[in-house]
Design a protein that fits this description.
Number of helices: 12
Number of strands: 7
Number of domains: 3
Structural class: alpha+beta
Distance between the termini: 175 Å
Shape: rod-shaped
Order of helices and strands: HHEHEHHEEEHEEHHHHHH
């Protein structure tokens, strides 16, 4: 169909011409754009640019959101891994703690086992010590029995002579007198048998005569002073025939007669030191004045006040000292030798004999008075006016003796154990150790 060309448009007053007189749209017939059309086109371009810009911004935001989501996911994954690792470490820590507690339990059980073993060893040690004491008492009984047998053999050896004399002489036929003689012989046999039984039942007590009654501690074994008093018989084992005071006083006075020479003496109070580090050392002190009476010195009094005791309550060690006098080293040196073989201990010792004792050969006139005073100083006074070397006064804790002065382990066992460095002020001096009294008796008997 042929369309007519546009020659004009119908203009109305109310609207923009949109159609021409031919019936077509006016746009098809407008050849040049108007100003309004240009403005609309620019606006459309602007809107299109903005839309493109907004799309780019939206795309960027979308990419940022995606990146943020990725990072959040990575953080969540890292957090989950951290929690898992932390839980794993906590489980390992709990396993380690559980293992430690198991080890502690095993250590506790092992400690109890070792404590039981130590207690069993201590019980075995105590039983062994009791057996040793029993054997020692049996040895003493055997010694007494051997002496009794020797007396019987001596008595029997004199009977053949009496029988020969009786055969050579005509026996008088006087029944009364023979009866009286038999009574006398029986009574003499009874008295001799009772004397032998008293000898067998006599109690052996270890006695130490201290050089001075004010000495706080006995001498320690191995020292020069200990060897000196041992060589002169200040340590002896005495047989006490009875429980009364007269038997004790008589036995001690007779045994130490060569040393005491009639001078009065008294038993000393011996207390086992219970201070730490020096447990077991005997401390000595004098009796109170109201208890210094020879009529009181029976076995019950000595057990309660003076002696050191074993587990069975028997007297273990006993220390005595002179009441009003003391022994000097010069006096002991001039005393009879009791235990030979220890004369080397009497060589000059400046700590015991005094620093000026050797100067008398060079300056007799100037120091003779001082030498007399030094010679008369007590043998138990070890703390001289001058200060000896520290090595002569002090000993380490391992070198200190914790036994009594006669070698019995009961006094050390009857008190608590343990030893370390550091001495309390009340127990700074070492105690004495032991010697085998039977060996000393054998040497003395030889």
């Amino acid at each position: 169909m042929n369309r007519p060309s546009r020659k004009g448009s119908a203009a109305t007053s109310s609207s923009t011409p949109s159609s021409c007189n031919c019936g077509h749209l006016a746009v098809y017939h407008l050849t040049a754009p108007t100003e309004e059309t240009l403005a609309d086109k620019e606006e459309v371009e602007t809107m299109r640019a903005r839309i493109v810009l907004l799309e780019k911004l939206l795309e960027r935001e979308r990419e940022a959101k995606n990146h943020l989501t990725v990072r959040v996911s990575a953080l969540e994954e890292h957090n989950e891994n951290g929690r898992f690792n932390a839980d794993l470490e906590i489980r390992n820590v709990y396993r380690g703690i559980e293992g430690l507690w198991r080890h502690f339990g095993a250590l506790d059980r092992r400690t109890r086992y070792h404590d039981d073993c130590i207690d069993a060893l201590m019980d075995t040690t105590h039983a062994t010590q009791d057996d040793i004491r029993t054997v020692q008492s049996r040895i003493i009984d055997l010694d007494d029995a051997s002496m009794t047998l020797e007396d019987l053999v001596d008595g029997l050896s004199s009977h053949p002579r009496r029988i020969e004399n009786a055969i050579s002489r005509p026996a008088p036929r006087r029944p009364r007198r023979g009866h009286a003689h038999s009574r006398r012989s029986r009574s003499s046999q009874r008295s001799s048998h009772s004397g032998r039984s008293n000898r067998v039942n006599a109690r052996w007590v270890q006695i130490a005569l201290m050089p001075t009654a004010s000495q706080p501690f006995p001498f320690e074994k191995g020292t020069m002073a200990y060897k000196r008093v041992q060589s002169r018989g200040l340590h002896r084992v005495v047989a006490i025939p009875g429980q009364d005071s007269s038997s004790f006083v008589t036995a001690i006075s007779n045994e130490f007669a060569s040393l005491l020479k009639g001078r009065p003496w008294m038993p000393l109070v011996a207390k086992i030191c219970d201070a730490e580090h020096v447990t077991g050392l005997p401390m000595l002190r004098q009796l109170p004045p109201n208890l210094i009476d020879s009529s009181l010195y029976d076995m019950d009094f000595l057990t309660a006040h003076c002696a050191t005791l074993d587990h069975n309550g028997h007297i273990l060690d006993l220390y005595i000292g002179m009441c009003d006098d003391y022994f000097s080293w010069s006096e002991l040196a001039s005393s009879p030798v009791f235990l030979p073989g220890l004369e080397a201990c009497w060589v000059f010792d400046p700590f015991l004999d005094g620093a000026s004792a050797r100067d008398n050969e060079e300056a007799i006139d100037s120091v003779i008075d001082d030498l007399k005073a030094d010679d008369r100083s007590s043998a138990g006074d070890l703390l001289r006016a001058w200060s000896p070397p520290a090595t002569r006064l002090k000993r380490t804790a391992t070198g200190i003796t914790r036994t009594s002065s006669f070698g019995s382990t009961d006094s050390a066992v009857s008190v608590s154990k343990k030893s370390k460095i550091g001495h309390p002020p009340s127990c700074v001096l070492p105690g004495v150790e032991s010697r085998d009294w039977r060996g000393a008796e054998a040497v003395r008997g030889a």
